[in-house]
């Protein structure tokens, strides 16, 4: 090979090597620039992620504070199909027992065929919806309060045939509970209000309340039943919130089907609503 050819080959190799080094430097610079850009973009993304986690934690905490409730709606016409007062009473008892077993918070009885404002059929008889409301409320009330809260009525004739619900708030006389249902009594209001809670003695609460009102009394652990130990009336939801105990169901009358959802006492909207027809299909 001639010397001129050798020199040309050496120059070509040198040029190729220079180009390769320049390309490598350009790639390194590009990688550094992209890395810096990614780092800058990652900072706000991380902040957003932390914010989402914080918001999610707050929502979860609020969900824990809001105890879920379950309401069921029953048509009053189910009673109209019963062939006698005794069978109608037994049917209402089965509904009350099912509501207690499944820890239902509210039973809404809607009148599918209301005939008057007060639920009478026109001949002095109660409509099926009003009858069902009366029996459900009677059975949910502890036995020691029923005589004070429910006057004699012909539609209560066969309630003695129904088995007791044995709900947690149906506390017996010899049992002690941190909360008890009671009814306010007449008497001196200078120190408070006397309440019959189904024990050997009436208890004194600090609030001044009108007689004949059903209340939930916080009994605590002090078993002193004298008036020296003053109790306190609390909301009916307190036993459930503090002890996690089921404390019975509420009964609400709705004059029509739309009133089931419109007049709900619960502030939060319903998360899930199921309607069933006679054939058991969900809608």
From TrEMBL:
Recorded family membership: Belongs to the class IV-like SAM-binding methyltransferase superfamily.
Name assigned to this protein: Uncharacterized protein
Organism name: Setaria viridis (Green bristlegrass)
Biased composition range(s): Basic residues: 13-25
Spans annotated as Disordered: 1-58
Lineage top rank: taxon: Eukaryota
SUPFAM superfamilies assigned: alpha/beta knot (SSF75217), Nucleic acid-binding proteins (SSF50249)
Gene3D superfamilies linked to this entry: 3.40.1280.10
InterPro entries associated with the record: Alpha/beta_knot_MTases, NA-bd_OB-fold, Put_MeTrfase-C9orf114-like, tRNA_m1G_MTases_N
One Pfam match: Methyltrn_RNA_3
